[in-house]
Amino acid sequence: MSDAYLQNFKESKNKLEQCQEAKQLSSCMQCPQILECPIREEYVKATYSKLNKGKNGEFDF
Length: 61
Description:
Layout: H1 4-22, H2 38-52
Helix pairs in contact: 1-2
């Protein structure tokens, strides 16, 4: 499955993992900037979009 939603998800996941590695964290939950983090927000949105394929409120599992 190689679509735009999946590609966006992979890119945002990679950015998130790089950030965690740079900060030596195993999870965003340990980061004091978790609520204001644009990288995590982008990842959450990309994950949601990947699951619902751009349809509001619907998920394709």
